[in-house]
Give the backbone structure.
Amino acid sequence: MKTHRIPALLACTAATALLLTGCGAGDSSGSKASDGAARGDAFPAPSAPATEVDGDGAAPDHLSTFALDVDTASYGYARRTLADGELPDPSTVRPEEFVNSFRQDYDRPDGNGFSVTVDGARTGDDDWSLVRVGLATRAADNESARPPAALTFVVDVSGSMGEPGRLDLARHSLDTMTDRLRDDDSVAIVTFSADAETVLPMTRLGDHRARVHDAVDRLRPDDSTNLGAGVATGYDTAVQGLRKGATNRVVLVSDALANTGDTDADAILERIGTDRREHGITLFGVGVGSDYGDALMEQLADRGDGHTVYVSDEEEAREVFCDDLPQNIELTARDAKAQVAFDPDTVTDFRLVGYEDRAVADEDFRDDRVDGGEVGPGHTVTALYAVRTRPGAEGRLATATVHWLDPDTRTPHEDTGSLTADALHDSLSTAPARFQVTATAAYFADTLRHTGTPLPATPSLAELADRAHALADSTEDQDVCRLARAIDEADRIGGLDGGR
């Protein structure tokens, strides 16, 4: 993906602070169109990149293309690290995973695929605005309406998993989830330490839940971490237990601290690539532990056509295994990609916040041989851009197009939405509350990374914490409360604001 980098921004002052004292009024302000409408007079994402030569002879790219991502592990791990009194390593901070950790109120489509919402707000910093591209799938079906699931749990039982908050959390989560799954769901369990072992073959729950509980209760920490053997055995077990008409998924529960056998994501995924492609088995990574191999887990999930979450306590584990995992059993879109086209007549610069690891070449947007993201019902995907408009700009600023394959037929589909200059909210404080939450999460992640040029009108951590607490009060959202507490922790630890 090629994007214009933002030039040096004006320093933020108290006068540019966003006064987030409540829920702002207003709608999404983004126009929406149905399947295929991206090809018209709406400044579309073209089949080949279009450019406009500027005064110095360069050909600036006005397209931004990325694979959809619903991972949230980076944000969860950052919260855990901050609660332990330390700042997260900047290399583990992925802003898109911060932004995608929060509930959104986008319109949802009736069937498979996506709705597309594009809205924005001026920042008060020169001609810079924040523009949000929001994609939403249909609401999750009633639990009884979804397809049956065949889940292979690959559980790390290495020595490091013996620490509190690791294997004990996994056992508790698996027990709770087993009681919540349906009778027609199936479960297999693979463990790995120095070697891997299938301790429970694929078992239809029905009257056999006690067998699953017994297998879970026998999980004990052992020796080193041969993650490669665990994943390979997990996929072998999943293939042996394939069920026609069921959603087949491998769920990896680990601190991802591989130290034996294959420790490289490419080598591990190469061994199971054929099964992944031929049988459509996707990987759901659940990270645990204060010392956590974030980079390896993310690579495994990305290349295994899945995604990752991180859990640090029983409440989060219950949400993941009892709420999120059932929601992620079904897919509504495969290989989904987004492309945002900025109108060079109205936009001079733009920067996508995060998604570096999900970049797709512009010309590969409609190439269905190129991997995108797998997304299920009930999901939202949000991308935030810093956008600089030309002085007095009028008319269309951006058009966002999402391209995906039907999960069953692999037929390609598209939907689109756009934003005009007159639809920008006058300030972040007058934007809808959920837009403000998105901006707050992005500012926080950008500050924790403290690399490159900051976002326009970046507030101090103390100011950002005040805004987050105000949003938590107005939205009555516990997730936003947790965000506010995490920003408080970062502010107490210090060492960030002055280094930008």
